[in-house]
Amino acid sequence: MVRKFGLINEKGEEYSFMDIDKYCLLIDPDGLGITYDTSYERIGINFVENLRQLDQGKITGTAVFSNYKNYRKLINFIEDSDHLRFHYVVPDVGEYYRDVLIAEISKSEIKPDGFLQETITFDCISLWYAINEANYIIKAGENEIRWDFRWDSRFISYSARNLVVVNNGHTPASIQLSIDGEVVNPKIELSVEGTKVQEIPFTCTINEHEKFQYSSKDGDSYVRKQNADGTYTSLFNLSVLEFNNNNVLKLPKGKSCELAVTADDDIASATLQVFIYFKSV
Known about the structure:
Jelly Rolls; seven-stranded antiparallel β-sheet; globular
């Protein structure tokens, strides 16, 4: 069993760093761990920390291409993508992602055997995260979600109506929710250790062939409607949101968290993603 690396774009397409015949082989990867930038103040003969922050990470390595065509395929993949995630699979541990921007891909001469060996550098714009996704339905006549998904072992349990999650990451966890229309006045509830701590009601009607979408991800937060033609309409307005309410939902670290989604009518289908963040994996 070996580690696996690759790039995934916003369309779900992947460029593998493990297939030298069709793509390339990434060797000597570095920057997968954690680095802090810390400054100190000298007090007598001791040094006291006065600023400590997480460094923006860089993932580096050497990409080996068996031919020039595969090199061009990587360049085209990057340039044709609006969003890139570095994909990292750790055998017997898990599958992780990190949002990245390309910083450098070198270009040298093709070797006599036809191979190219190039340095590659990615700037990291997020922590590592695991994506846990559930598709769910409810029974007719009940406005509570009925989960139909066997969660990864990091989730301690689930019941017929509510999902119980333990965030074992290093920061509060975010969610993304998408509900297919028709749906009227959806609402998200978060309970921590058995006590309801947050409720986010949305006053809106989402018609058939439209979607209600909510995200609490840093740098990618939204409340919006996806229209039938695929375009988006923001729902950040007073008619939809209670602005005196805390409308950013995060799952605290190390706590038993219960998520529930309801609406005035039945929810036919929806998808929930929970993002568990790690400073190093």
